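Batch job 17 of 40 flagged for manual review because the log was empty.
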Amino acid sequence: MRLSDQLSLPNRNIIKIQAKLIKTAIKDKCKIDIKHSDALEILAKSYGLPDWNVLSAILSESGDT
């Protein structure tokens, strides 16, 4: 069972804010710049999903565009 099946996902805007926070944290802690799309991929994995496309599709199915 995926973590995303057990938790309700935040809306798309919150997800994008979380991705920005991940990107900033990695830059501050590791001194590595990553792309926003990479942060979205990391975030999708944190919800137990294979990638951002799947997370985005789930959000779209729930009516969050």
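Reviewer: the log was empty due to a logging misconfiguration, but the result itself is present. The chain has a mean pLDDT of 89. Unflagging and moving on to job 18.
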